[in-house]
Design brief:
With 410 residues, the protein is mainly alpha-helical. The protein has two domains: 178 residues, Up-down Bundle (Growth Hormone, Chain: A); 202 residues, Growth Hormone, Chain: A (Up-down Bundle), CATH 1.20.1250.20. The chain is 83% helix and 0% strand. The protein is built from 18 helices and no strands. Helix 6 runs antiparallel to helix 7, helix 9 runs parallel beside helix 16 and helix 10 runs antiparallel to helix 17. It starts with a helix and ends with a helix. Keywords: Cell membrane, Membrane, Transmembrane, Transmembrane helix. It is found in: Cell membrane.
């Protein structure tokens, strides 16, 4: 894999850290800012709103810019946003800083996925994209726990200062390691928007909204499940969430490899496995070992499907993939909102803390249904790399022939 992917992974690590670390620091931030926990929850919401708005807006604004320029610009804005958060003197300015930090999130991942795919060999594009997203999953294992501990020990402002430093490191790494494309097609906004005339792009985004809304329905309420249903101590929750982060990392790595051979089969397989994992968790959550294993499997199966759907959208918007690719991040945040809302709805309805797992399984099934419609309209499931398979078979036959020849000669 090209070393330039390391630069993209470092940036993804920083983005993942700032997105999720605020959840563990809400009490400290709320107390320091003199607001309630519910009001502090808007630091999460404003970041998500920034992602939804910024993904299409910034990508469209930079549609005629070179992709490396877009990567540097978005990472620069990300760094400024987190530095502003570290220095924000008031609740209102911290809200604005969180919104600013979220704006470049989707645009960076959208353009970064296109760059990662084009840095790799044609039969390794999904693997390359998955390597970038591994930075995001590793943030849940390393970045978020370290950031939370730093904020609890020395103050939450130091956490955002740390993320700003990561942003500077990522900006430097992109400058040094990511090559400027010698020939790069300048698409323009009109061409980028034309990709959304393709129904398959909308179907793929539908898979993201429902298929991955399943994960957020489950994940949004996992802490009370682990403490009140399974019986874990509150101090154990960060370790368990890190275990889920390990599952996400393993799933992203494996999903990228399999998506290079058969993307839609990989998507169907892992969304189906996600349904099974969610239902199994709801049935076995009272057992500590089973619950821990379930966390790992839910994270792994959900994230293993991401490279497939990322490549699906980029393939269907091949002439202008940046805006369509960035829109995936908007779709993920819509999935987050829908999953969390539906999960909260069934809990409020008295169905219990495990009910969001059933909601998640239902959403994943809807995602599978949308993917099935897309495949039917597309004429069936085909492997991504038939030439690779044919090349492997030819090489194998050649080896057999050479071995037979050597035996005859001997």
């Amino acid at each position: 894999m090209p070393i330039a992917l390391l630069a993209l992974a470092i940036a993804a690590f920083g983005i993942g850290t700032t997105e999720f670390v605020i959840m563990g620091l809400l009490p400290e931030v709320a107390q320091d800012m003199g607001v309630s926990i519910s009001a502090a929850g808007n630091y999460i919401s404003l970041y998500a709103l920034g992602v939804v708005i910024g993904a299409p807006l910034l990508t469209a604004a930079g549609s005629r810019a070179r992709r490396k320029t877009m990567l540097l610009s978005t990472m620069g804005l990300f760094t400024v946003g987190n530095l502003a958060a570290a220095l924000a003197p008031t609740h209102e300015l911290l809200l604005a800083s969180r919104f600013l930090s979220g704006l470049p999130h989707g645009a960076f991942f959208g353009v970064g996925a296109v760059v990662a795919a084009r840095l790799a060999d044609p039969d390794k594009r999904a693997t390359a994209v998955s390597r970038m997203f591994i930075g995001l999953t590793v943030a849940n294992i390393i970045g978020v726990p370290i950031g939370t501990l730093l904020g609890q020990q020395f103050g939450w402002r130091w956490t955002f200062a740390m993320v700003a430093v990561i942003g500077v490191a990522a900006w430097t790494a992109v400058t040094v390691l990511v090559p400027q494309a010698e020939q790069e097609q300048q698409t323009g906004l009109r061409t980028e928007l034309r990709a959304f005339r393709e129904p398959q792009v909308w179907l793929a985004l539908g898979v993201v909204v429902f298929g991955f809304g399943a994960l957020f329905s489950f994940y949004s309420y996992i802490t009370p499940v682990l403490t009140q249903v399974t019986g874990f101590a509150a101090a154990s929750v960060p370790i368990l969430l890190a275990l889920m982060g390990v599952g996400m990392t393993v799933g992203t790595w494996l999903g990228g490899i399999l998506a290079d051979v058969a993307p839609m089969r990989t998507l169907f397989a892992f969304l189906s496995a996600l349904v099974v994992a969610l239902l199994a968790f709801s049935a076995l959550a009272h057992n500590a070992v089973a619950a821990a294993a379930g966390l790992f499997l839910v994270g792994a199966t959900a994230f293993a499907a991401i490279p497939s759907i990322q490549m699906r959208i980029m393939d269907k918007a091949a002439s202008a993939p940046s805006l369509a690719s960035a829109s995936i991040q908007s779709a993920f945040n819509i999935a987050n909102s829908i999953g969390a809302w539906l999960g909260g709805l069934v809990i409020a309805g008295g169905l219990g803390l495990l009910a969001p797992s059933w909601v998640g399984a239902t959403l994943a099934l809807i995602g599978i249904g949308i993917a099935a419609v897309a495949v039917i309209l597309d004429g069936g499931v085909r492997p991504r790399a038939p030439k690779l398979v044919a090349s492997y078979r030819t090489q194998r036959e050649r080896s057999r022939t050479e071995s037979a020849s050597e035996s005859t000669t001997g």
